[in-house]
């Protein structure tokens, strides 16, 4: 940012916007989850081949062992990842960019500060993804990254859940059911944050998420979020993406409105 500022204020602004954009993972999340959907519905493949490819594709966006997942397990893991990573990859960077920008509401420095805040958040989140595991290898080294990430996501995770709740009726889903499921089931998750967007997503889709998963060869018990009203089908991945994209735009709109409010007072 210092080097960009030596060129011009325009270069600093453009560079800051670019770096902030690179911290938003919405497009990548959409692309990878759609890849899971496409292999599960691809014509000309046997059920076994679809499942094998689905396991490989979903392994790119989840931390669990996918080698033994059944078809519904692949779909469930994909939807959970869409919900959780909407918070980690989209709403949280936007939130911290907003927090950083409001400290310099009337200066050119607001843009690089916003980008820097988002980059710091992503550094914390990446450390948690790499080392924040409760196993023998990382339990002593990764606890700090995991706890820091938990605290950093306390607000963004809940904002993500509310964004999903609010866009539910716009996407043909039930706002009341999404909100009810979030309130009832969010605290059941082992994470203090991930349960909020996952439960809101489960309620909006009318499906059950969660359940036992394999990590490093160990079966980890997880509570069920939502109600098993419907059998999980690949189409639910598309519907989850619609909710994710709509909720992300709502979060961007709300952050923009809040920023304009702060700079006007």
Any overview of this molecule?
With 265 residues, the chain is mainly alpha-helical. Helices cover 67% and strands 5% of the residues. A two-stranded antiparallel ribbon has the order 1-4. The longest helix is centred in the first third of the chain and has 31 residues. It starts with a helix and ends with a helix. The mean pLDDT is 88.
How is the secondary structure organized here?
Blueprint: H1 2-7, H2 9-22, H3 26-41, H4 47-58, H5 71-101, H6 110-131, H7 143-152, H8 154-167, H9 175-185, H10 195-205, E1 208-210, E2 213-215, E3 218-220, E4 224-226, H11 235-264
Antiparallel strand pairs: 1-4, 2-3
Helix pairs in contact: 2-6, 3-4, 3-5, 3-11, 4-5, 5-6, 5-8, 5-10, 5-11, 6-7, 8-9, 8-10, 8-11, 9-10
Using the CA coordinates, give the radius of gyration: 19 Å
Shape: globular
Across the major sheet, the strand order is 1-4
Computed structural class: mainly alpha
In what range is the share of β-strand residues?
under 5%
Number of helices: 11
Q: Helix and strand succession?
A: HHHHHHHHHHEEEEH
Helix content: 55-70%
Strands, total number: 4
Residue stretches low in confidence (pLDDT < 50, at least 5 long) are none
User: What is the end-to-end distance?
Assistant: 28 Å
Largest sheet: 2 strands, antiparallel
Calculate the mean pLDDT score and round it.
88
How would you briefly describe this protein structure?
The protein has 265 residues and is mostly helical. It contains eleven helices and four strands, in the order H-H-H-H-H-H-H-H-H-H-E-E-E-E-H.
List keywords for this structure.
single chain; 265 residues; mainly alpha; two-stranded antiparallel ribbon; two-stranded antiparallel sheet; 67% helix
